[in-house]
Amino acid sequence: MTSQKPSVLFVCVHNAGRSQMAAGWLRHFAGDRIEVRSAGSMPTDQINPTAVAAMLEEGIDITAEQPKVLTAEAVEASDVVITMGCGDACPFFPGKRYEDWKLDDPAGQGIDAVRPIRDDIKRRITNLVSDLIED
Question: What's the pLDDT at 1?
Fold first, then answer.
């Protein structure tokens, strides 16, 4: 990592569930100490309402977020790129830290199925924050 504020990009196919929940958690835990981005290889037109509801249960409001298309510029500008099932659509740049998080897709699932995904993401984010930020 550089001495500048680290930046993390979360990428999934639709940028409607997993990556949006991860971005919400990272903003919650890191505040302005980490720059947060999210994008999708084939973004939908809105965030998954069940993912929004699951995050609201934890006091995190992601309703204002919009799915965004993945660009090479977003990858290039990020220190850490975390993929969640985006496959070969993710551009690769040498010198970046890449992680692939195997997570179920919350698309089309009810709240009882989305809660464990949300909680798994939370656990991973707390580990990421402690890895990226030295207090």
Answer: 44
